[in-house]
Design a protein that fits this description.
Helix content is 70%, strand content 3%. It is built from 15 helices and two strands. The protein has helices at 18-40, 46-53, 56-88, 92-107, 110-118, 120-123, 144-147, 150-175, 179-187, 192-222, 234-245, 248-277, 289-311, 318-331, 348-353; strands at 126-130, 138-143. A hairpin with a 7-residue loop joins β1 (126-130) and β2 (138-143). α13 crosses α14 (318-331).
Length: 354
């Protein structure tokens, strides 16, 4: 059996995945070709894109889009949580009302809801509070057209539509918690509120978070539908501009890039929130992308220092020796802070000599 001499290393041969390499090469080629076409195709008119991307009218419409998303999202999820609890309650009245609400608003298209809310004054010229079943003793009364503006109609339509879907997401998350958790907490005599907020809800959040952020991202793009009520959100504003100057593609790219930026930020927030709620389900959390990048840089730096020290093994640099020891400890399965046993090899040279 051939043994390794001083300074010699084992050569690790990794398995070759030819199909994976070919598919990766095709994907890289397709992406490179697409990026090249974006840069070289003059019909994209990137100068027009740059002119309008940070323009005041586009930024104002972006702020309105974010306002609609935040307000409708908060109202939708709060109302959805109440509807989910009503669906899970033992009251036949609450259960039936919640089911009917969810069924109706999931059945009617969002565009139709927005148009109906915007034209509510046609059905009810006035809205007020007072004695039921009669208008003779009303306390307050207002014209509907003054209450239901374009913004109010858009907020109502988006919020109620979102509440119907959020209710099912929250209900599914609560049902995903093991029933034994409820029985055990009830056997311990814990108050019902404590059981829900400290035991059920944190575990249900693992199942709720991915679908909830999916709905929020859909809500961001769903705000583009409110152009039917002439509300100047991002997509409506872009339409108005390109109908005037006929620069359709660059103006659409302005909207696409802004939507992509918002979606990316929401996806990053979703990743860290999911990671937070997964603490109880995993013994050790997976590293974040930043932690992975730091570990990769540290490993490559240690390999670089190791190669430098191999060129002059008699006079190793102190930094290179430390990097070499850290790399060898990692390969031998020794934790970073664990002491090295007496007589144990600390470098690959010692291993080969042993």
């Amino acid at each position: 059996m051939q043994t390794l001499g001083p300074g010699e290393h084992l050569k690790v041969v990794h398995p070759k995945h030819w199909v994976l390499w070919i598919l990766s090469a095709v994907a890289v080629f397709a992406v490179a070709q697409f990026v090249w076409s974006l840069v070289t195709n003059q019909r994209y008119e990137w100068n027009v894109f740059g002119e309008y991307f940070f323009s005041e009218i586009v930024l104002n419409s972006l702020i309105l889009t974010l306002q609609l998303t935040v307000i409708s999202g908060v109202i939708g999820f709060v109302l959805g949580a109440l509807l989910a609890l009503a669906r899970l309650s033992k009251s036949p009245l609450l259960n039936s009302f919640s089911w009917s609400f969810i069924w109706f608003f999931r059945s009617v298209p969002l565009v139709v809801q927005l148009v109906v809310w915007y034209n509510l004054g046609y059905l009810y010229p006035t809205l007020g509070l007072g004695t039921p079943f009669t208008t003779d003793f009303w306390l307050v009364e207002f014209p509907t057209v003054q209450l239901i503006s374009s913004f109010a109609a858009a907020t109502l339509g988006l919020s109620l539509h979102q509440a119907a879907y959020s209710a099912e997401i929250i209900r599914a998350g609560i049902l995903s918690v093991d029933q034994g958790q409820l029985e055990a907490s009830a056997a311990l005599g814990l108050p019902r509120r404590y059981r829900f907020f400290r035991i059920i809800l944190p575990q249900a959040a693992r199942a709720i978070t991915p679908n909830a952020f999916n709905e929020i991202i859909g809500l961001v793009k769903g705000t583009s539908v409110v152009f039917v009520v002439a509300l100047p959100e991002l997509f409506y504003t872009v339409q108005v501009i390109y109908n005037r100057n006929q620069r359709i593609i660059p103006l659409l790219l302005v909207a696409v890039v802004w939507y992509a930026i918002i979606t990316t930020l929401l996806s990053i927030a979703q990743y860290y929130i999911e990671r937070h709620f997964s603490k109880g389900a995993h013994r050790e959390l997976p590293p974040t992308p930043i932690q992975k990048a730091r570990a990769w840089i540290s490993e490559k730096w240690a390999l670089l220092d190791d190669d430098k020290s191999d060129e002059d093994p008699e006079k190793p640099d102190g930094k290179a020796a430390e990097g070499k020891k850290a790399l060898d400890r990692k390969k031998n399965g020794v934790p970073a802070g664990a002491p090295v046993p007496a007589g144990a090899p600390s470098t690959r040279k010692d291993v080969s000599e042993a």
